[in-house]
Structures
1.
Amino acid sequence: MIRTEEMLLNVGPQHPSTHGVFRLVVKIDGEIITEATPVIGYLHRGTEKLAENLQYTQIIPYTDRMDYLSAMTNNYVICHAVETMMGIQVPERADFLRVMAMELGRIASHLVAWGTYILDLGATSPFIYAFRDREMIINMLNELSGARLTFNYMRVGGVKWDAPEGWVDGVKEFIPYMREQIKGYHDLVSGNEIFLDRVKGVGVYSKEDAISYSLSGPNLRSTGVKWDLRKDEPYSIYDRFDFNVVTKETGDCLARYHVRLEEIEESLKILEQACEQFPAEGEILAKVPKIIKAPKGEAYVRIEAPRGEIGCYISSDGKKEPYRLKFRRPSFYNLQILPKLLIGENIANLVAILGAVDIVLGEVDG
Amino acid sequence: MSGEKDLDQLKREAAEKAKAAALAKRQAKAAGESQGAPKQEDKPSEQALNQDEKPAQTAQPAGTPAEDGADLAKKKAAAAAKAKAAALAKKKREGILEDEAPAPVEAAEETPVAAETSDGDDLAKKKAAAVAKAKAAAAAKRKAMELAAGTTPAEETPAPEAPAEVEASDDGDDLAKKKAAAVAKAKAAAAAKRKAMELAGGEAPAEDTAGATDETSAKAAAAAKAKAAAAAKAKAAAAAKAKAAGTGDADTAAAGDDEKAKAKAAAVAKAKAAAAAKAKAAGAAKGGDVSPGDTADQPSPNQPFLEKYRKVIEENLGSDVLEDSYINKLSKDVPTLVAKKDTYFKVAQFLKYNELLGFDYLSELHGTDFVTHMEVYVHLFSYKNRQSVALKVKIDRDEPTIESLQPIWAGANWPECEAYDLLGIKFTGHPNLHRILLGEDWVGHPLRKDYEPYDVEV
Amino acid sequence: MVEELLHSSPGIANFGIFFLLGAVLLLIVLGFVTYGILAERKVMGYMQLRHGPNRVGGKWGLLQTVADVLKLLLKEDIIPKAADKPLFILAPVVAFAPSFMVLATIPFTDKFQFADIGVGLLYYIAVSGLTVFGMVLGGWASNNKYALLGGMRAAAQMISYEIPLVMSVLGIILLTGSLNLNDIVEQQENVWFILLQPVAFVVFFIASIAELNRTPFDLPEAENELVAGYHVEYSGFRWAFFMLAEYVYLFAMSALITVIFLGGWLPLFDFLSFIPGAVWFSVKFSAVVFVYIWLRSTLPRFRVDRLMEFGWKVLFPVALANIFLTALIKTLFF
């Protein structure tokens, strides 16, 4: 009689495929997972606690560090929350700059998601291609904000810097280039048998599960829920643009992969229209008081970040610091379904599933 | 310095008056707001230009000594700080005016300095007028929004606002009038455009707008024309949008010499969807100064939803399950329900499983330490009805315990762990309540207001 | 020369000569490994729109690998406390030794070969199968779960893919009637076996990638899943030995493919026979290595269960069918 026992395997906190300091304690029988327990918090910096002693403008750099792959949307959500509370109308040009920055950020973020996902599956080159194209976006955002990753670009009432001369033209030129690249991505990876073998029908969850587990963004849309806050609860000037909400029905890793790639194309559409409509001149910052004080009360706003719905709750007692600030961090919510998905899968699928959820640990841990 | 005190008093009063006026105007319909506008346009538009200069001219030579002005300014600052209502009103005014029509705001800011020509009373009045105008405009806009949403039939609302505005402007001096006019102008243009949009979008029945237009025309010829034109064209074709914008532009330009207004109108005319942005501004303005309590009865686009939720809950769970319910104007008009501690779970369950409500998605859950009590805030969303609701519950701070929502929404699992970790709220019935971020060996709950960090900062 | 030595009676001088020749071959192999790694990095670099090594040793990075190896030599030798020490030390040796042993039978040219044994092909396959012991030992001795999983995967994978590997060359053995690699090369005078046995070539090539543990079959290492698989606990020169074994196998396998499918040292056309056989061999050999590198930078990794399925359900039957077909054709037409 052979004695067998389950093995406890510690995946992370330092592991090539956890995309950061994320630990997953899995019980495995051979290579089949019988139980998975995520352990998070390694990157918890207490943003919300720190924010209680910071003025609103001072909080913005902290948001850069949550989802550091799409810092623009994080910048936006806090500004948007404060603006909503104070009833500030953002100048048109600033709105355009914001939207363009956010959409560029979304493309950059999805590119990283794409590249690292394929890397997780063992192919090295797509990662580099994705980073090459992301680099162009990063350069554009750098021109705009002066930073490559932690932009700290938006302010309550507008943006900090106006677009440098020729910036919009640069974005315009980037759009057709990126469209070509996407085609190349599909040629390289999307039809690859080995790739399809690894993602098709892997990590499937139903629409009901996705909703019940509070998933959002591509993770939700991959199950066929047509919901995009940009479209359905338009904020900023998203109602001026014509774009589609990408959905897939299967709810597996492949669907999530395709949703992300196609969302890049939709973002390009938005960018294209934004470039056309970009106002030649105008203010970039609304007239806001020097010291921003949100009125007494509370507000919760949510917007569509690349990873899902990022929300910001502010409870203000009328002072210049928030009484309580809370971010709804999409990765944190999206990760909850992971233990459920992993049971019965093997280690290789663990990587495929985790990669398809596309988490950023800075965001998971707040 | 009794004058100073008087001034405060007056300001407060003025603000209150303005609020009252705004309340009255809230009943006004969308068309209404453009009525007052052209009326004043006629009068002050000619004066607008020279009046722009006038304050500047009068400020130094004509007025009482400059220090007086400075005093006034100081007084004003003090007053603003002291009188909350006034501050709120002002903020609102700033919020609206700055965004909508920069020129009037500048004028308004000059007011304290310029106004030493007249006495404090006048100043107060002027302010009151300005505030009133701002509010009126905001209200009118809101109305416009509602109309656009098709929630309020156009016929049912009288238009008492124009007189109010006229009266207010009578009270004030030319400056105030000018301001009012400028604001009204901008608003009128916006409204006209929005109307056109609406029509084109087919959201509001054409008749409604037509009726509204009739009413309007009696009082405001210019705006009415613009609107009628817009309406007609909208009926004819979708291209009306652009044209209506054009009309609005022309209207504004013709009526006012105000450079800024023109620039604004032009900018607006450029983008076809600028009206939507305006509507948003109205929404924002709505949220401008509203603290939840005092505006519970203000009509908002989401008011019917709140009524519905309240009704359904009361019918099924009894009338005493909710502690409070209101529209949170600050938070994009989200209907907010405050459950009692012992009914929280029941209400949550009901919100999810009731067919009329069907809030199947938990967007956010967190706790807050309000020192007097703890609060759990849950933001729910229904994919079926595409509606949001915020559910709150107040719990005892010393013994923060509440039922877990995890059995209802699986997505509440980690957020509840987070609330437990950072605030020490215990969720009963949670399958695995643990310190998710800080680890089990952490001492204290950092987001509690009495938390003392282990290593105090130097 | 080698031929004479092989047939002369044993003696001290004889041994000395063989030892020296062996050392020379080792140096050649090490030279290949050095520049094979560099080539891999350069080729992958250019495929991935970057430059690869370009600092150490001029702009081509010619001394990069040398520097890397030096670094590995100088690194502290770490043996985990809980590891099985003797096995831990033994494993890299067990893994490397067979990789070098298999080179003995490969005819690089008609003159340069170390052991012209009758069952050269069988010898190669049998000895190369030993390396898996090194990997399993290493994985086991490390006392690390990832290493254990990697070792298990290595064992499963290499045993599974050895079978299609052998089966696919059976067709060639049927055609040539010999297991001697020299005979196999000479049989390709007119037409290479890649044309006569294309199915066998494809099966053999795929199986050989699996044997080499290279992408897309690099599951025993599987950086993204098992961190580094069976050699996760190894560092310094012990780790270098595993890497060395891997690249020597790359060398050996490329050489074997050149020999049995691409006509070894034979020229492409007869009128090109003025070019020496060694050049022909190295050209074909380099082409094979290039394809390996190319695949590595293109394909994602298989999943472990699909890998097994693919091996047993696709490659194995195809190889069997190939044998059957070859035998049928041979009996009917020749």
2.
Amino acid sequence: MSSHPATASTRNADHREISMMAGTHAESERELPSVPPEPVMEALKLNVYYGDFHAVHDVNLSFGKHEITALIGPSGCGKSTVLRCLNRMNDLVSGARVEGEVTYHGQNIYGRNVDPIAVRTQIGMVFQKPNPFPKSIYDNIAYGPRVTGMKVDNMDDLVEEALQGAALWDEVKDKLKQSAYGLSGGQQQRLCIARTIATKPDVILMDEPCSALDPIATSRIEDLMLQMRDDYTIIIVTHNMQQAARVSDRTAFFTARPDETTGNRTGLLVEFDQTSHIFANPTDKRTEDYISGRFG
Amino acid sequence: MSVATTTAREVTRTVSSGRSKDKNVGSLVFLGALWFSLFFGVMVLLVLIVDTAIKGSPRFDSELLSNYGSIVRPESTGFRAGILGSLWLMLFTALFAVPLGIAAALYLEEFADKERWWNRLIEVNLQNLAAVPAIVYGLLAVAVMALMGFNTTGIVLGGAIALALLILPVIIITTREAVRAVPQDIRQGSLALGATVWQTTWRQTLPSAIPGIATGTILGLSRAIGEAAPLVVVGLAGSVLFDPTGVMSEITALPMQIYSLTSNSQEDLRTAASAAIIVLLIMILGLNALAIFIRNKFQKTW
């Protein structure tokens, strides 16, 4: 709460220098207040149901501005469900019901007068499998601004800026008119990130963005996320604990608890803390078991 | 070591015994049965086509295409009215059926809530409609024409309505298949950027599905072009001696003309009918070839 924007940005600049010198993501160097400063988004007593199935139980989370928050946990623990609630993508699943609140700058995005379309322009999303549109690279980027009716002075500049932002410009600047399907998997995923950036969102949700990529492509995306942290608030779901440790500032650990009568597994939040604490000395036994590989 | 050697030797013997389980009596009999079925199906079709072609061969001339039907000079009778009539029918059938069919399919796939009873009802009805005999659509078209207040029969409009109703279920079903084949990832990607469901459908789903839709539509049309039953009910004449000029003009269609000539007592007219059958087949094969071309050229792999 106490962090001042100016100090935050200098700290980020220092951090990037360190990471460049070390040639790796030097995560532990970053100083973090114990609670997320200026939370951009918060989940308050979030419960999600699919029909009768209780998928997520009472999740409280808060996502700090210009921080990367990782959601980790075993399969079926509801972390992707929580992520999809944050930009109302869960609305598209038939039978899905959300209780509790998700606030974005204090406003409940599940409120009565809120347009989910407007929510999604502010809170972008990158998916597990790279999903470029069957169009040219240029049109992939320009699609978002076009459909949302964004005022764009010069689309070419916007496309370049978005591709620069996703560290893809140098690789594709000579083939903007070619199909996005000609790119490699890692490039496609960075294109999807560029596509999201182009609509100038505030928050970017990433649902296991590297799980379909090889280690080199993964590493490039992780570098990119650390760069993007200066401009965006990033929330990432990952199966890869090392990835969470490498990139995130804070980590939320979820687990699934089977219902005593039906056996259905309901996801719940176990622990939410700074990543260094979660990995070095977790308070909850379940977190410790998961982190140390004894479970999950 | 010796155990390993024996096993290896045994494996070699089994593998190279020269006897394959694919070549025992049961497999061979079954294979023979399959070959026979294939041969029988193809042969019957081939014999029919060749027989018709031979019968019609004396009339493979330009007059067959350019003359109107004539009983007075059966040796130079032609199918100009039928060919033009069929083409007009195709045009208007496509104009009626394609937009309706695509819109219905898009509603059912992209907008309808499948939990609702009325959507499920439409779904079941649609499956059944595809199996309804063609002649019933003719009756339906007559009813529609009567409701709209037209009392002239045998016009382009009536025939096109009958054929459009006939192929509507085919177009809807193939369009739904094509739309369903567009990966969910694409829709989610679009929606996550802040596009509406409508924008997503219009700008992503529909363009990606167009090759499939075009193929289905053309196959539907090629079925419609060969139909005579619904056109009989709608009152199309067996012969007309002028070109169609508009939706309200009386026409005949190629299958109608063939139908009315095959039972004629004059040898020359029956010969002309055989030749016309070949013309109709060529038109249908042409449409199907176009469908295959479109499918291969524009097909997307995800």
